[in-house]
Task: structure prediction
Amino acid sequence: MSDFRTNISRLSEHTGIYLAYPTTHTLKQTYRNHKSMVNNQHTKVGVTVKSFRERSSEYARTFDGEIEFVPLLIMQPDELAAIENKILAALRSEFGNVGRTREWFDTPDRVRIAEIVQQITGRAIESAL
Result:
C-alpha cells in the first residue's frame, strides 16, 4: 500500500471503490435531507462510476470539508455492479449498518474494511490507511 496523499492526483479521474469517513465527533447527516447521522466512528464504503475527484467533492460539500475520502481500488464501471453487493454483504456480516443506510457502517476500523474489500476482490488496495 502506498500513501493516499501522493496517489490522489494519480487516482482522481478513475472510477472504483472508496471509503469515506467524517473527521469530527459531531454527528452529521449522511446526505442532505437524510435522517441518518454519522461521525468519526462510522465508515462509508462505496463505488463510484463518476471519478474519485467528483465523488470526493460531493462529500466535501455534504460534510463541510470534515471528511476523509480514500480511493481503495481502481475498477471499471462495468466491474463495480457485480462486486458491490458481495462487498456490502461481507461488511454487514461483521459490522452493523448505521440507521437505515446501505453503505455506512458502525465502525472506525478502516484497516479491517480495506482487508475485507481486498479479500472479496482479490486485488491489492491502492491507498494506505
Observations:
- The chain has one domain: 4-121.
